[in-house]
Amino acid sequence: MVVRSAGILLYRLTDASEPQVWIAHMGGPFWEGRQTAAWSIPKGEYEPDEDPFAAARREFTEEIGAPAPDARYTSLGEFRQPSGKVVTVFAAETDFAVDRVASNTFQLEWPKGSGVVKEFPEIDDARWVGLTEARGKLVKGQLPVLDVLTERLRAEGRFDA
Fold it and tell me: pTM for the whole thing?
């Protein structure tokens, strides 16, 4: 059975019509100190009978600590990850802001084999970044999401780079 996730990619255009996207740094010891290919769109798994958009909104709230903004969302499509997981992504243009990221947490034995279980945030940072920076930060499997967003903005005549 295919594991499915759903996520939200928020975007905004700067005064110079340059797109920026809202992405999140993954928490926990594996990602600590890493910047390259260590960021993700806010997303999470959902059950086969669950609505992907409802799941995306729920996961955004859990990972960012604030509800997904009220905005006009559109589907960017489904993206198969190197792991085989399929991520359904919804996008919205908004000037979202939070005072701080307050992610839910997970437990992990750390250091591995120590018998000590610690709690870590799923997300330890989130911010607006330009598309070029996002390409260096996002995990490889999510780069096609940026391509679809970029092509959509070009087709709408809103971005010409």
Answer: 0.94
